[in-house]
Every structure is written in structure tokens, then in C-alpha cells.
Amino acid sequence: MPLVQRGPGDKSDSRYCGVESGFEDDVAHLLASNLSAGFDFMVFPLIEPNYRPSLHKVDHGGDFVLPVSGSDLILSPSQWSSHVVGKISSWIDLDSVDEVLRLDSEITLKQEIAWASHLSLQACILPSPRGAHCGNYARCINQILQGLNNMQLWLRIPLEKSDPDVDDNTSENSGHLGGGRVIDAWEMWNTFRLLCEHHCQLSLALDILSSLPSANSLGRWFGEPVRAAIVHTNSFLTNAKGFPCLSKPHQKLMTGFFNHSVQIILSGKLQRKVPPVSSEHLGADHDGNCFEVMPSDPLRPYLNYIGCLYQKMGPLPEQERFELNYRDFLQSPLQPLMDNLEAQTYETFEKDTVKYSQYQRAVHKALLDRIPDEKASSVITVLMVVGAGRGPLVRASLQAAEETGRKLKVYAVEKNPNAVVTLHSLIKIEGWENLVTVVSSDMRCWDAPEKADILVSELLGSFGDNELSPECLDGAQRFLKPDGISIPSSYTSFIQPVTASRLYNDVRSHKDMQHFETAYVVKLHRVARLAPSQPVFTFVHPNNSTEKGNQRYKKMLFEIPSDTGSTLVHGFAGYFDATLYKDVHLGIEPSTATPNMFSWFAIFFPLRSPIYLPSGSPLGVHFWRCCGATKVWYEWCITAPTPSPIHNSNGRSYWVGL
Question: Is 326 within the bounds of a domain?
Fold first, then answer.
């Protein structure tokens, strides 16, 4: 049964915990035993471990039968599919210098995966590569992937591994090669994945051992397709009451896996004798929290501890439940000047109360600064909401006026005729006829009857300026008084290099250059953020610069933390931070993001070919904002450590229409 349900929106695969078992002829009994112990699925070898094709000479009669764990009739199709993950024989070595072993390995690998596919298994775990030289292994897997059905292949990778040239003693479960210097396991995975052409059915099963790499090094894996974490019982400590627990770094890693829908698989034997208890008893985790221990199965205390860690995370916050279906889903950015938004889009944005409360705070402060208390009842402030939509900013502005006791005259300027209908209806419902004037016009073309004291807009995109706020507000600036206030008063875009295997594969699936030169709005989830974000373009309003024009160019150099190790850069996450008025901010840049706000997701700029970044190498990045007569577009490239093509030259693939 699942570990626990974290609220109605919890559909995470990490709710399920499996167990690694040895070869067993009686699969039905093995499965029943593991399910009764509380596990959701099991991982076990499909073929008898001592089988070698070269030891079984098949005559022309063809009467040889593979030594598999019973027939496919032992379990129902749904049981095979839901409760079994195949484990490919660990002795397989397709890059061995021993030709007999190499040929045996290739034959057996194909036989086992064919049998797993016949059983309709959802996944098989492949043994870890035996060092950096895995060309033939990757070639065989790549061949198999070309004709594979929907089954996933999970490559087993230990988080630490020694150099095989130093010591050839291997450990079957961990893939850890003892005695030598520790090399970067990510390099092993990256080599294998590149040789297999980033195939979307090739994923990862990480072996979690007693010692862990640095936090920055571990962070890289959250941008990779990790499907399972195999936690070994010898990685557990023992708490004061004699029950298994994990160290603080291991706990933090487990929480990260839970948040990224990574399933946990327990592997190994009971390491220490659990204190004698009755059939049901309460133990304690590493922090003293209680959980139930049922000693009927040797691994049950470990399972209970994993369940306790999962339960400690609590229910998903409302914002995360809202964002679940948007995680890592690529969306085309809005084109608000070219297209009229639909009612559903307006409704989604209007639910973000945090955003409008920030706007209300900004208008509140601007009114207090603009009108002193002694003139509050005699002076009427002219406020123009440009791009009023269905009226949330109008409401926020009027509420700010009521709070401050200031008088307000509002112009609601909106180009979408459908939204204008809603605005007129809203004014009648709220009784704002003497306060609000609706203007059905593009702000860039409207001839205002008077100048505004305050100009309010919500034209910001995920990258700040990508919905053409600079062009719109520059056009609307002509009807703002010389000492008038613009809300927002400024905004800055930011970028950050990321590892994002899933996003890269989604873009690559379109099989054209155009999609690699398009920016996408996406709720980033399975990504590794490789370095702190850096500012790119800044715009200030009102724009009093003598040099008019909104084209920009920025050159940046990102330094990846030295303990991260080598990485693969799939593209850039883009954010914005806006100053609405004075100290009132709004934004999605991770270090300063407005809490509990969901109106904006990040923007993602992909790279046509991922860039390998060796450990310690800086990343040189160039970004351009280009302006033409009818469109605005971005161009981007990398110049270090190796140059990439300039993406989206002349806006050939992606642009925003004026």
C-alpha cells in the first residue's frame, strides 16, 4: 500500500516503495510475501543468475528453454505490470575483453529484455556500466531502445564509484568498485546517455550508499530522469531506541526524491537486530518522531521509517496542488498584443490574490505620497489602468483609495472587446459609474482626455519584457504627467543555466530547429539549477532616457560551484523581478520570489545541442533583445567552454508581434 496520501492532489510516484529481492522460482509466493509486508512492488532477476548461453548448446531441434522465474501465467498481466520491475543480470559485461563473456552478455541482455517486454513490465533495471568505457554496452541498449515498446530501462548508477583501473573487485548491488579513487558517477551516466542519443525511455535508478557526494553534486540529479532511488540497508544508522534511521544528509536527499516523484527501493538485509517488540509497536525516527514497527518482515522497520519521512512532509500546499498538472509542461508564451485572451485565462490569473494585494499596496503607498492628508478630501487623483482586462487592477486601485481616504478617478483602458463587455457589467454591479470610465482602445493609440497622476499596468511576462511591456508603456507614457507615477516603476529579467533532461527531450520530439529556438513558459520541476541567476535586461518607467529604444544586449559569465562536478546545460530558466512602487516588489526570481504567487511560471530558453560543462569551467552566455518594425525577439548563444550556434537569428523561429 502507498506510504501515505499527501492530500487529494498527491499523485506522486514516490508514494510507492519497492524492495529488491534475489532470484526466486516461486514468484507468486515472493510477490504475495512482499505485498503483505507493505511493499508496493518488487525488483528481482528474471533469469537464473548462473545461466550462460555458452554453457547451453542448442541442437537443431531447438528444445532449449530459458531458466526464467516460472511462466508468464504465474501472475496475472496486471500483477506483472503493476508490481514487478525486472532486474537484468548483474554479471553482464558487454565491454569485457573476454570475448565469450562479451557475447554471452549480449545474448542474455537481449533475451532478458525480450522476456520482460513479453511480460508487459513497466521497467527493467540495467546493471551499472563497469567504468567509463561502455561503448558496446550503450550500443546494444541503443539498438534495443529503437524497437522497444513503452517499457522503461533504468540504468543503475551508484552515486560514488571508484576507478576500475585501480581495483577490479566489484560489488554486485552497488556497482561500487573498491579500493580506487572516487570518480564522478554523473560522468558515467552522461557518457551512456549521449551514446544512446538522449533516448526518452532510458532513465536512472540511483544507488544510495552510506556516504554521499556534496549537496551541489547531488543537486545535478534532479534535472536528470531519475525514476528510482535504491536505498541500501547498510546506509541506515541506528537511533537511541535501536531502530533504523538515516543521517540528516540522507534525509534531505530522500525529501528531494519525494518532491520529484522518485520511487524508493529498499535493498539488502536487516543490518541490526531490532529490539524485541509486540506485534505492533511504536518506534522513533532520527528526530524522535514516532512510527509503527511491525517486525513480521525483516525490512519492515526500514519501510516504516521511509514512510515516516514521507509523512513528515505534510499535505501539499494549495499553490503546489494548483501547479501539479503544469509541472514540466511546455506552453507557448502569451501574445497579448496580437491575441485577445480568453475568459478561462483571465479567470486563472484573477485567482492569484497575492499579485493583486501587492498592486493594492503599491497604489496605497503612491496615493499617500501623492496626496497629503490635508488635501485628501479635495484633490482627485487620476489613475489609468492600461490593459485593464476584466477589472482586477481597477478593484485593487479603488480598494487602495478607500483605505487611504483619497479620491480617485479611474480610466480602465482595454483593447479586448470581449473583456470590455465584462468591465461595463462589473461597473454596474459594483456601482462604480461615477468612479470608472471604460475605454475600449489599444493604449498605444488612445488619445487621453487628460493626463494621469498614476499609470497602472500588468503587462509583465515571465521574462519581464517578453509580453512587450516596454513598448506598451512607452506608448502610454505620453498621457502621464511629468511627475506622474508608473506602477510598475521598473523590472529586470534574469537567466539561470539548468539541466533539464525532460524538457530537452520534449522539445527534441518535434524534430525541427524551430522548437529549439522558441522560448516556453513552464512550471520548472525536474530541473537542476546549476548557478545563481544573473540579471539580463532592465526597463524603467516612465522612460526619461534621451536614447529611445528597447533593444538590449548582455554578456554573462556563470561560475558553477567547484564541488558540483561536470554538468550538461540543456538551456536557461528565465525569471523577472519588478519594483511596483518603492519597496513593493513582485517577481519569480528564485532568491527574491513573491511567496504563494502563481500568475507566472518561468520561461525556458532551450539549446539545440546540450553543452557539456567540465568541472570548474565557466559558462559564457550572450543574450540579445532585438526590435523590428512589427516584432520583438530574443537571440541567445553560448561562447564558452565551447561555442553554440546563435539561436533564433533575426527572429526566424520565435517572436512577439507588435
Answer: no
* Range of the structural domain that residue 571 is part of: 490-657
Helices (H), 329-391: 343-350, 353-370
Residue-wise pLDDT for 19-57, tens only, equals: 999 998 899 999 999 999 999 999 999 999 999 998 876
Collapsed DSSP state (helix, strand, coil) of residue 293: strand
Measuring CA to CA, how many Å separate 26 from each of 29, 70, 73, 541, 647?
A: 6, 7, 12, 74, 57
How many structural domains does the chain have?
Answer: 3
Answer whether residue 205 is part of any domain. Answer: yes
Residue 45's nearest CA partner among 113, 107, 140 is 113
Pinpoint the alpha helices (H) of 388-535.
392-404, 417-430, 469-476, 501-508, 513-516
Q: In sequence order, which ranges of 159-260 are alpha helices (DSSP H)?
A: 185-195, 215-219, 248-259
Q: Which of 113, 121, 137, 244 is nearest to 189 (CA)?
A: 137
**One-character DSSP codes across 311-331:** HHT-SPPHHHHHHGGGBT--B
Does residue 449 sit in the same domain as residue 543? no
pTM of the model: 0.90
Task: Return the active site residues.
Answer: 458, 467
The angle at the Cα of 463, spanning 460 to 464, to the nearest 5 degrees, equals 35
| Same domain membership, residue 118 and residue 175 | yes
CATH code assigned at 308: 3.20.20.150
At 360-417, the pLDDT tens digits run 999 999 999 999 999 999 999 999 999 999 999 999 999 999 999 999 999 999 999 9
Q: CA 402, CA 408: separation in Å to the nearest integer? A: 9
The conformation of residue 19, written as its DSSP 8-state character, comes to E
Query: Is-contact 583 607, C-beta < 8 A?
Result: no
| Torsion sign, CA atoms 369, 371, 376, 381 | negative
Cell readout for 93 is 559485461
The verdict on 166 and 96 lying in the same domain is: yes
> Measured between alpha carbons, how far is 621 from 555 in angstroms, rounded to an integer?
6
